[in-house]
Amino acid sequence: MNTLSNGIAGRVCIVTGGARGIGGAISTRLANDGAIVAVIGLPADRDRTESLRASLNGSAENVVFYEGDVGEYERCTKAIEAILQEHGRIDCLVNNAGITADHTARKMTIDEWNAVLQVNLSGPFFMIKAVLDAMVAQNYGRIVNISSVVGLSGNVGQANYAAAKAGLIGLTKTIALEVATKGVTCNAVAPGFIATEMVAAMPPAAIERAVASTPVQRLGQPSEIARTVRFLLDEEAGYINGAVFNVNGGWYM
Amino acid sequence: MFKGKVALVTGGTRGIGAAITTLLATEGAHVAAGYSRGKESAGMCQAKLASMGASVSVHQGRVDDPADCARVAQEVLDRFGRVDFLVNNAGITMDKTVRKMTAEDWQTVLSVNLSGAFHMTKALLEHMIERGSGRIVNISSVIGETGNVGQANYAASKAGLFGFSKSLALEMAQRGITVNCVAPGFIGTEMVEAIPKAALEKVIEKIPQRRLGRPEEVARVVRFLLEDDSSYITGAVYSVNGGLDM
């Protein structure tokens, strides 16, 4: 059987922040579909990746951990070099790593602003920059950036997060244009409120409000984002480029 | 994947619609493909798919006629017992600049492309509500986002579908029914091939990927939205345009 026959099997896929939350669901989905998943994460994510591997049925060996910090360009290139050396190619990049540091703008410190932009926006740029030559050289690549509904709507207390996630859409579209004739696509997925630790950290009343204001009246599941990412990473998704796929239960249209 | 499901695809025997019909039928759904004109191509489409072992029926009707929509919907429900998926794909063009476009050109395109989706949806909505589940995908167009010289009527109808879809998505959000749009760019179908060669070359130059899309590339996005697991996607517009409009 051709190992590339299901559109993702055998492909080398990087998932930043791929050890938990939405990223963990993406790693799980890709590994189960036969992809080789390189999780890039902070030192603490090494153990989390081990737990994730342990939860996989028969595809644990498909997941490999690489330490890296997307907020630092040199560490991105180092991780990419290691992955290229090990696997010989990089087919897919999922820029998922993200942080929050919520405060209203009046109370937000410059450090909080910078830290969130560094990880959530510069991080994807650094990672894309680090993989793009390899993708162009092989005339194939699929990049998916995990944005957020908040990047489209804004949100009280999230000026930094919303700016980063909106910026990510601009980055997505520009990369899409720059490599459109090189076999590389770049798209964004914009999740709504998803049941992850990040959302669980919100005050209970805020979560209730989020659910109540979502037309389908529930939080989304990480796996519901993962399947959309997987769809865009498919070999056959080559005509989808520069798109933003919303998965938000109707919260923002 | 869709074994036991029933889909109704308007304009489902040609172009993008035929690709949708083919994909859903090969995934195991029964597909009721609507057509208005072109009885011959409808018969050919059905015969071809039947020879592949797929379950397809064709139904003549006009989406711009509410009574026809109700009749076809009833026909499909009577014969196949249920409708899980409605794909409002039927569409026409009558291109002219606004200065030359007649009121009839305007009205005709709006009636088929926009009102047609409304009429067909009305004809199946109570059934879907009763069952507490359903998937509706409306085929819009990149032109609904960008506009296009000579397509005021088409662009208005396709942009109108966004508003229709989002409103219906809100109305149905707690009833297990999702409503989404797919917005194709320029796809290699008869409709696009009817564009004069020089104009078509200009179009392709403007597409960042420098090629037309294939009907199958649109069909697979429709299929994705129809899956049970897509229940958290509603009111969305998924573009498939090679980067033409972002």
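Residues 110-137 of chain A form the longest helix (28 residues).
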